[in-house]
From TrEMBL:
Keywords: Hydrolase, Metal-binding. CDD domains: APP-like. This is Peptidase M24. Pfam families: Creatinase_N, Peptidase_M24. Residues 144-345 form the Peptidase M24 domain. GO terms for molecular function: hydrolase activity; metal ion binding. InterPro entries: Creatin/AminoP/Spt16_N (IPR029149), Creatinase/aminopeptidase-like (IPR036005), Creatinase_N (IPR000587), Pept_M24 (IPR000994), Peptidase_M24B (IPR050659), Peptidase_M24B_aminopep-P_CS (IPR001131). Residues 11-136 form the Creatinase N-terminal domain. It comes from Pseudobacteroides cellulosolvens ATCC 35603 = DSM 2933. Belongs to the peptidase M24B family. It comes from the Bacteria.
């Protein structure tokens, strides 16, 4: 058995324990990130139907060969018509009565179709079980994420040589994305944020036509997708003589980021870690200027659980991968955000992002 198939085997085993606990015969999975996690199939369309004994993957003509190669633990069923019919064939064959479904990822229309057409006696919401299985990353996932983060770091080393007065934000974004692709990324993990000057006061200022000017602060927030996993980082740099207040803000954000990321221990809740950064910023008078959460899980999705926010109730466990990204934003002046990705450990977390957080003046 090769490494990847034993990983899938293990994920299926954990899923089947949950099925048993919930007293459900089988679960139907259609969310891309979840079927990828449980099968290894990377195509854009599939249903998984998983019971204690069986694992089926239903897909169409385009993906039959690919899914047979990638999802070796599954019996692949080709279906070029109505997938409900193909699912019903399986339901009848293995005798599924209670079927779990992903209620958080279904439209009302699809749910109605399941309800009226699937030949089961009960349709039961499966909750966030699969999302929860994905909270803690295994060693193979961590290796891929480390590489994705490294690509982001290398793009940063490159881009600080490119940023200068006269270049547009959108050109900087294009250069970052091109560089990440050259390093093996399949694409950006979200729309690259390049927010300069007063635009840096917008936490999600996607790159615009604005030209970088002398004296601008520039926030760069970007990431890539590498082998189906995301990275995410933020650095804020100065072009020319920095504004005094922004320099002060930079030091506060840097301190908050450092304290929160080095204190993110196993056993703490997401909200405890959020509070470490939030109180440092509030004590220095910028509480109202830090309006977003401290961080989020990263993995197959760019934003996933666990959240580090004032409502974050998930308890940190070894192997969870989260961002730590405090920021301070002042309308009319600009803003600063600094973001690293960390892995929760028994001891101090492993900080994956290696780009400097010292002040950079270009
Ligand atoms: Mn982020």
């Amino acid at each position: 058995m090769d490494n990847s198939s034993s990983i899938i085997e293990n994920r299926l085993k954990r899923l089947r324990e949950k099925l048993k606990l919930k007293d459900i015969d089988a679960v139907l999975i259609n969310k891309r990130e979840n079927y990828f996690y449980l099968s290894g199939f990377t195509g854009s369309s599939a249903y998984l139907l998983i019971s204690q004994e069986d694992a089926y993957l239903v897909t169409d003509f385009r993906y039959v060969e690919q899914s047979r190669n990638q999802a070796s633990k599954y019996e692949v069923i080709e279906c070029n018509g109505n997938s409900i019919d193909a699912l019903n064939e399986i339901i009848k064959k293995i005798g599924i009565k209670k079927l779990g479904f992903e209620e958080n990822y279904l439209t009302y229309k699809i749910f109605s179709e399941y309800k009226s057409s699937l030949l089961v006696s009960e349709l039961l919401p499966f909750g966030r079980v699969i999302d929860e299985l994905r909270f803690v990353k295994d060693e193979v996932e961590l290796e891929v994420i480390r590489k994705a983060v490294k690509i982001g770091d290398e793009a940063f080393a490159h881009i600080i040589k490119v940023i200068k007065p006269g270049i547009k934000e959108i050109e900087i974004a294009a250069e970052i994305e091109y560089h990440m692709k050259k390093l093996g990324a399949s694409g950006p993990s979200f729309d690259t944020i390049v927010a300069s000057g007063k635009r840096a006061a917008m936490p999600h200022g996607v790159a615009s036509e604005k030209v970088i000017e002398m004296g601008d602060i520039v926030t760069l927030d970007y990431g890539c997708i590498y082998n189906n996993y995301c990275s995410d980082m933020t650095r804020t740099v100065f072009v020319g003589e920095p504004d005094k207040e922004l320099l002060k803000i930079y030091e506060i954000v840097k301190k908050a980021q450092y304290e929160a990321s080095t204190s993110a221990y196993r056993g703490l809740k997401g909200k405890d870690i959020d509070n470490i950064a939030r109180s440092i910023i509030a004590e220095r008078g910028y509480g109202p200027n830090f309006g977003h959460s401290l961080g989020h899980g990263v993995g197959i999705e760019i934003h996933e659980e666990p959240r580090l926010s004032i409502r974050g109730e998930v308890i940190m466990e070894n192997g969870m991968v989260v961002t730590v990204e405090p920021g301070i934003y002042v309308e009319g002046l600009g803003g600063v955000r600094i973001e690293d990705i960390i892995v929760i450990n028994d001891q101090k977390p492993e900080v994956l992002t290696s780009s400097t957080k010292e002040i950079i003046i270009l």
